[in-house]
Design a protein that fits this description.
InterPro entries: CalX-like_sf. The protein is mainly beta. It has three helices and 18 strands. Strands 2, 3, 4, 6, 8 and 9 form a six-stranded mixed sheet that branches.
Length: 316
């Protein structure tokens, strides 16, 4: 998007005149669209960045030219053009830059802030990052059960582009309603805490930490525990679908026995119901050896053969 900011030259110009444009970041204006008394309230906006102030190359605008000229006799308005960069980065909802007239040559800059400055506001339309609790993470008891230990439930960034402001969410251990729900104060400690993603942590996973009391989780336990999240600042959270079922979609599946038990999360209460697997079938016998080849028979007539030279005399 291109924004044109006019600069008016008043009076008759007899010589080449020029004025410089100084660009600063930020600015205070009434909120766009405000009316009545609110239109008189000055609000300090976040600092927009140009390509000279952003080391990473992520910037909001560029300004050109930084000096405008009027030829002798020219009284038309001159313009400063602001190119607004349309990126996909979530930033402050409203940013601003301030243009100030400086270094006039063969002309004068009028007194008064409103005559020598212009403030341009830039509204951000990019969505904030979205976060979601990962479902169905299994947890098994530690080696020694008489302990309290924290489990870590993953919370992933699932939507949205890069962002420039810290994204903050709050998580809470939810009180379940299903027959498999873990009991707060017995199986786990109630907790509410916050997680913050800095801009350089884009698309990373962080963890909600909840303390379990393994000494009160029975061997046959097959429990469910979910975590709810809400956005605090510069963030969005995924909404639970209408089909959410705590027994199958909870964040944490808590088992009372280690992985590899038969089956995980249960104990066998009736040993007589266990049936041993049938024994393995005996290995098949190897095939019999092949019969020996027949004996070699030598014909004695062959052994008595001889060669007789031709003794017939030749005749003339």
């Amino acid at each position: 998007r291109l924004v044109k900011v006019p600069i008016e030259l008043l009076g008759q110009n007899r010589r080449l005149a020029s004025v410089g444009i100084n660009v600063t970041y930020g600015g205070a204006t009434p909120m766009p669209g405000s009316t009545g008394d609110l239109a008189l309230v000055q609000v300090q906006h976040a600092r927009a960045r140009d390509n000279s102030s952003s080391v990473s190359g992520d910037y909001d605008f560029s300004v050109s030219p930084l000096t405008v000229h009027w030829e002798a006799g020219d009284t038309d308005d001159a313009y400063v053009y602001i190119h607004i960069v349309n990126d996909d980065i979530h930033e402050a909802d409203l940013e601003a830059l301030t243009l100030t007239l400086v270094n006039a040559e063969n002309c004068d800059i009028e007194e008064g802030f409103e005559n020598r400055t212009a403030i341009v506001t830039i509204k951000d339309e990019d969505a904030a990052p979205m976060f979601e609790v990962r479902a169905r993470t299994p947890f098994y008891p530690p080696l020694y059960r008489d302990v309290r230990a924290k489990i870590q439930i993953p919370i992933d960034m699932v939507a949205g582009g890069r962002f420039t402001l810290p994204a903050v969410i709050e998580y809470t251990a939810a009180i379940g309603t299903s027959s498999l729900a873990a009991t707060p104060g017995i199986h786990y400690a109630n907790v509410t805490a916050q997680l913050t993603w800095q801009p350089e942590q884009y698309a990373t996973t962080q963890y909600a930490e909840i303390e379990l009391d393994w000494s009160k989780i029975p061997l046959k336990a097959d429990l469910r525990l979910h975590v709810t999240i809400k956005a605090i600042s510069e963030a969005r959270v995924a909404t639970l679908p209408a089909t959410f079922d705590e027994t199958t979609d909870a964040a944490a599946f808590i088992y009372g026995v280690p992985q590899g038990s038969c089956p995980p999360g249960t104990t066998r209460s009736d040993p007589s119901s266990w049936v041993a697997p049938p024994p393995l079938a005996p290995a098949a016998s190897p095939p019999p050896p092949s019969p020996p080849p027949p004996a070699v028979v030598v014909d004695s007539a062959i052994l008595s053969l001889s060669v007789v030279a031709n003794s017939t005399a030749a005749t003339a």
